[in-house]
């Protein structure tokens, strides 16, 4: 089984700051790191580190070949990543001492993905496979339509959230992942309860409060694992990637969610994004005290 991830690839410039910048404020950073990021790349790395087989569908500029090489090093199949004339997407990330962040994103090559690129990848998939998507690339409707035609299951992580766009894609999903605020906004946009959507499985993440899984008319709440927060960037992507990899490896959703919660708890204790996502052994060996 394979996860085909249509997703962004960014260079992440992460600045350590004494507090998140306010409008009009000039703020001195205390540190800077450059790493691999983008919600798509983060999820692909998380899938790979969770022992999933993942093909990344995406694009970078001539300046982004290092990112493709790094994805390959992390176990991601990169044959469906295209080099374009657009600059590689990048993110400017500010992180305060409490681990909270603010992020400024340039889409760049992430919005230069063509239907031909998407089609050439998805034609390799079938009913045993997943298509994973977020909102940092173009081509989502095309990809979801093609995936359904070949029998693939569709997972949609509806972030960065735009209500009108999410309302188009969510009904095409078999698995929908979004946070509490996004869930409320989607209900308002579609004028319906989240649980009335034609989606088999919905996971609503709640940060330190854990998450809720909705399936048919039932719900199960999962408490989060305790964590020492350093940087929350990429924690949600790690969670989603681990869920998908767990499902791809045959885990039931509750077991996949529990594993993903553990991975996210480790992730928030690390500074960075794709480069520091924990691997499966780290997650399985981790000891958490919930008392």
UniProtKB/TrEMBL annotation:
Catalysed reactions listed for this entry: D-ribose + ATP = D-ribose 5-phosphate + ADP + H(+)
Residues annotated for ATP binding in this entry: 179, 205-210, 236-237
Enzyme class: transferase
Cofactor: Mg(2+)
Transmembrane portions of the chain: none
Binding site for substrate: 10-12, 38-42, 136, 237
Organism this protein belongs to: Donghicola mangrovi
EC number(s) given by UniProt: 2.7.1.15
Activity regulation: Activated by a monovalent cation that binds near, but not in, the active site. The most likely occupant of the site in vivo is potassium. Ion binding induces a conformational change that may alter substrate affinity.
Homology family: Belongs to the carbohydrate kinase PfkB family. Ribokinase subfamily.
Pfam families: PfkB (PF00294)
Record text on cofactor binding: Requires a divalent cation, most likely magnesium in vivo, as an electrophilic catalyst to aid phosphoryl group transfer. It is the chelate of the metal and the nucleotide that is the actual substrate.
Active site: 237
Subunit structure: Homodimer.
Phylogenetic classification of the source organism: Bacteria, Pseudomonadati, Pseudomonadota, Alphaproteobacteria, Rhodobacterales
PANTHER family: RIBOKINASE, SUGAR KINASE
Domain Carbohydrate kinase PfkB: 6-278
Name this polypeptide is given: Ribokinase
Keyword Kinase: yes
Compartmental location: Cytoplasm
Pathway recorded for this protein: Carbohydrate metabolism; D-ribose degradation; D-ribose 5-phosphate from beta-D-ribopyranose: step 2/2
Keywords associated with the record: ATP-binding, Carbohydrate metabolism, Cytoplasm, Kinase, Magnesium, Metal-binding, Nucleotide-binding, Potassium, Transferase
Binding site for K(+): 231, 233, 267, 270, 272
Biological role stated in the UniProt entry: Catalyzes the phosphorylation of ribose at O-5 in a reaction requiring ATP and magnesium. The resulting D-ribose-5-phosphate can then be used either for sythesis of nucleotides, histidine, and tryptophan, or as a component of the pentose phosphate pathway.
